[in-house]
Fold each of these.
Amino acid sequence: AIRRRTLGPEHLDSITALAALSSDYVHTVKLAEAERSYQELHEIRQRVSGAESAATRESLGGLARTYRCMGRFEDAEALDLDFLNYSITKFGTDDQYTNFRRMTLATDYTFQGKYAQTEPLAARAFERLAEQLGRSHVRTQFAAYLLAIVWHAGGRDAQAESLMRESLAIDESAHPGEWPVFWDRSMLGALTGSESLLLTGYQGLLERK
């Protein structure tokens, strides 16, 4: 607040500080504050950088993430769909960032049970992010989780389990003892009904909160 009073809200340092504060509100689950903060950030960036700048769009991405945390999945979907179309126009249909935006929109669809819309987005994001970032990258792994959820919902349990076991083996090698391993165990436990995997995944995540 002192920095903003001294430099003004449209100074780069003030904008950077507001963006960091907005993100922190999401991480600390102060979601009403996060919503107001991201809306303010978006308005400031529109004035400073223009409506179509990447920075301005990023503030809407933060707002969409806030809506997901609030359970407002349709609101998040509307923002993420617009963001994906922007990214395709700005960076190209197969850019790494565009594939990340595909994964984000697929997440919104998954939470709403729109699996028919989820699968093509998640499948393409998974395939391309694996090539662009590597199979062990957290974004690639998350796209794999979405695919596994869709396959499980569609009765393709063997495919879903195989994909999650692959993800677990990768994370145990790339991130031993870290939270991705325990997330994988929780996901695999949910898919297979394994109490031991659910328990070890839950305990591991609690210890790394």
Note: DSSP finds eleven helices and no strands in the chain.
Amino acid sequence: KLALLIIIMSFPFSLFAQQNSISVLNQKAAELGIDASHISKLQERAQENGISSAQLSQILEPAVALADEDLPFDMILQKTSEGLAKDVPINVLSNVLEGLKASTQKAAPIVNMWMQKPGVQNMAGGSASESVKTFRNEVLKSSARALNQGFSENILSGFLNELDNQDLLSNINSSDVVTSITILPDLPTSVDNQELSSELVIRSLKG
């Protein structure tokens, strides 16, 4: 009886703690510019899957953390949505999302430094243009995916520096850059020679 009483007494507090946890997360997400409709849809899907508010807070934390650092978080939300739709176990999904968060954080200083180069900013539309931030976020996302697939930080940095060439920049556009980074880890040569992959893509961009 005592054990049952303890369970009954602790249940409302546990429920309140979960509700409070997701409420705080929702508030912070809204403050950081994360669309409330995305969070609501994920909450609905989580409820359908029998996922607690505490577990939902856990898998949403990586997106909130990236938003707090002014880093792109939409691919985290997309992966979260896909994982919930496929009913992926929470621990597995959480590990995937944490990996993407870590890769984005590793890519950020590499991409941010490259974005400061005048030639890169000119290609993106000028330093004061909103298109520069959009371009930076797209490069960050493709770079994060590459790192998440095991591509080297040093070789990625070297690849971007190779692109800082006026002749080359004048012949390519922002989508070419994003696409070229995206394919780097997928090239067969990247299995044992990532530097060669980098060289091959640079050559193809040069024409």
Note: Confidence is low (pLDDT under 50) at residues 1-18.
